[in-house]
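Notes from hallway chat w/ T.B., transcribed later so I don't forget. T.B. wanted the structure written out for a chain they're using in a teaching module, and asked if we could keep both sequence and structure tokens in one place. Agreed to drop them here.
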Amino acid sequence: MRAAPTIMSHYRLNYLDRIRELGHRVTPQRQLVLDTICERGGHATAREVYEQVRLTAPSVNRATVYRALDFFCALNLVAKTELAGRTVYEMMGEEPHHHIVCTACGQVAFVPDTLFDELAAQLWEQHGFRVALQHMALAGKCRHCLSLPPP
């Protein structure tokens, strides 16, 4: 019995088609990197992706994984974000989303894209600047960490 397709497997198939549509090859190594990011379903460092890929294909080297990550980022299939001092990668979803990251405890929370609609409109009206809000992370301190006494 086959498992029901997941949202990430749906993304994966769409992304593989998109790569081909753009005239690029889907190499086995690229497919492994994409599979790994999809399977993780969240934020992964390049090292974590590399280590996971090596479990399946020990002959794949680190440079190949890093090049594949850069390739997917250039095609806007994968987002590269700084979260809590770490560079992480995740699949770009159908809808833009953003993160807020506590610089004290490292907690990450998702923020809906619509929260920034008014800011984007004001930037356009006041400065003639159209901001690209596909994916971003805002750093600060969470409520809990702000409530703690200073060290």
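Follow-up for T.B.: Residues 1-8 have pLDDT under 50 and may be disordered. Might be a good example for the class.
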